[in-house]
Every structure is written in C-alpha cells, then in structure tokens.
C-alpha cells in the first residue's frame, strides 16, 4: 500500500491527467482556492490595514515554510519573484573589480542564469564557462580547476535541469572557500525531491523557486544567505522594504536592516505569497525522505523501461547521482512529446535532453509504465507524424 497516494485528493488535476511534469510546474493543491480567497478577503475587508496585519512581513515569514525543506532556520530566507532576480540581488553585493572578478559556471547551467552573468561582463565580470562532458554531466575536476584566487562567484545548480544529475556541491563549496570565492547554490530542481541541508553544506547562498517540486506556483523564489554573511554584505539592488524605518520615509542613503529583510527591495508580490503556502505545507507534511524513496523507485522504473525499448536515457543510472526527472531520448522525441500532451499525459521536451518525465509523490507508480507504453504506441502507429509539420524548435 502506497501511503503517499492519499495526497492525490488534494491535487485536482491528477483526476484528469497523467501528471508527469513536476520538474516544470508542480500540480496545484486545492487549498490554493482558499488562500487566494483569504488574500482577496484581506484586501477587500481590511484594505490598507492588511499591510500591518501580516502582508508587510510575508516576504520573510512565508520563507519559514521553505526553511525546513532546505535545512535553513526560521528567518533565514527572503522571498523574491524569480531565481534570476535572486542572482541579481546577490551579485549586487559585490563589485567585479580585478583581480577578483571571475564568475565560474558550467554550460549545463539554466540558461537564464548564464544570460544574467554574461551581461555582468559590462560591470567587469570575467565569465568562465566549463563545457559539458556529455549530455548528462560536466567534468568536476575541470570545474574545480577553474575556481581560483581570482574567482568571486560560482553559481551552480545542485541538480542540473536537463539531466537531473546531482552535482557534488560539497567539493565545489570546499574548493571555492579555500580560494575565497562564494558559491550560489541553485536548488530549484533539488528542493522537494532530494534531501538538502544548506547549513551543513556551509554554502554562502542558496536560491530556488517553489513552482516545481514544491507545488507552490509561479512568482516566489527563495534566497538563503549564510548567517555570518547576512549583515556583512550589502546589496546595491535595495529599496525601502530593507530600511530599518521604512515608514519614516527618510531621504538619502538607506539605513538597512541586518536580517533577511536586508535582501528585499520594493513592494512584495503578496498574491503569490498567499498562493504558495498550501503546497509548502503539504511538502512539509509528506516529508522529504518518503518523497525521495518513492522517487528513486519510479525513476528506476522509467530508466529500465526506456532502456528495454532501446531508447537513450540522458539521466544518470546511479540513483545516488539522480534526482527526480528521467530524460528519455526516443526517436522523434519532440513530436512524441506533443502527442503525449494531446493525450493528457503531461511531460515536456528539452533540446539535448529529450522527453523529460518527472513523477512526484502523488503519482501512481503504474503511471511510469503507462507513459512509456504510450510513447511506444505513438511511435508504432506513427501518431507522432501529425506534429512533425509544426516543428520550429532549435
Ligand atoms: C535550475 C533552474 N534554475 C532557474 C530556473 C528558472 O529561474 P527563474 O525563476 O528566474 O525563472 C529553472 C527553471 O525554470 C531551473 O530549472
């Protein structure tokens, strides 16, 4: 008996679809209807008083529901609109002055983060990109060798979005700290599917969003800053929410708080901060170890089933190196993905990865085999062909 299946009732879309896309957008908990109503009620009935009745603190207080999922303590997280912006806040704490102006990253990093750091070259950043060794991973030794005395920042995903490969964060952090560099760990594809403890890792910064494995919807990204750095660093991307006395409306330079509010700037994204809470509460109740155990079982079934059909798997076979997604490169993967979507089997396609299949704790284990069997049938009956004309992707 799979205890975790009791949570299915909380996610309406699971009744209508085979939902295998939690690496992209986790299913919406039905509780979101209630929290959105609570938001509307507070605005409608309390009006401007809502700010002092909780809204003002939400960009830090709601972070306490994320903290246990990444191994942080209450008060250690500030919430932003997306991960790209968290990178902007962090990098605004530094200047890219020679000689310590190097940013080291891998080309398997999520593209938005690459775009952001390449633009920082205008501020003096020197960006070194370590190439992928294959479709799954990069060469750790090459990355470690690139991190030297001139390195300022190392933005790195704990789980690579294309292949679901789990990066050796400990080795990278150790090397970076030995030469005085800072590591920004992007836990987007990790939190909610593998255990993670940012404090025991000793990482400088951890960031991620809640819309995937945490089922929190779009518009909320977390930023953790290590305790000893928190008051020491000073973001230049700042604003009145970070001020010690925002309602004094003092002019001139900011007198910034020393806690996590220090990393905030303008008016927070209140509706998204309401919407994200039911998912976070459920994830905390389910527990990361139960999720991970089931995830390993389901991804193993997917890998076995894909290989037995002769398809390439762009995800590590070793469960210790693999997070929640299996990237399956079958023939005509893009078109097969389109036909799966037409059949209410929700997955996605990424170039150089293939069809990404991402079961979560609320999936039935049989849905893994069902998805693969449908892919096989789509290929056998040439049902993929009707999507071939519309191919415009790179
Ligand atoms: C590892 C990783 N980082 C960042 C992002 C996206 O960042 P943002 O919140 O800026 O859209 C994604 C995916 O959407 C991702 O998988």
* CATH fold-level assignment of the largest domain: Aspartate Aminotransferase, domain 2
Q: Which percent band covers the strand fraction?
A: 5-15%
Q: Give the low-pLDDT segments.
A: none
Give the ordered list of helices and strands. EHHHEHEHEHEHEHEEHHHHEEHEEEH
Helicity, in percent? 25-40%
As laid out across the biggest beta sheet, the strand order is 2-8-7-6-5-3-4
| Arithmetic mean pLDDT | 97
Ligand kinds: pyridoxal-5'-phosphate
Q: What is the second-level CATH architecture of the largest domain?
A: 3-Layer(aba) Sandwich
N-to-C terminal Cα separation, in Å? 44 Å
How would you name the CATH homologous superfamily of the largest domain?
Type I PLP-dependent aspartate aminotransferase-like (Major domain)
Shape: globular
Structural class: alpha/beta
Write up what this structure looks like.
- With 394 residues, the chain is an alpha/beta fold.
- It folds into two domains: 3-28 and 287-390, Aspartate Aminotransferase, domain 1 (Alpha-Beta Complex), CATH 3.90.1150.10; 67-209 and 221-268, Type I PLP-dependent aspartate aminotransferase-like (Major domain) (Aspartate Aminotransferase, domain 2, 3-Layer(aba) Sandwich), CATH 3.40.640.
- It has helices at residues 31-46, 58-61, 67-70, 83-91, 111-119, 140-146, 169-179, 198-201, 227-230, 270-275, 277-286, 288-308, 333-342, 366-380, and strands spanning 18-19, 77-80, 102-106, 126-130, 151-157, 182-186, 205-209, 221-225, 312-313, 326-329, 345-346, 348-350, 354-357.
- The N and C termini lie far apart (44 Å).
- The model has no long low-confidence stretch (mean pLDDT 97).
- Bound molecules: pyridoxal-5'-phosphate.
- Pyridoxal-5'-phosphate binds next to helix 4.
- Pyridoxal-5'-phosphate (PLP) binds at residues 82-84, 110, 112, 157, 161, 186, 188-189, 209, 221.
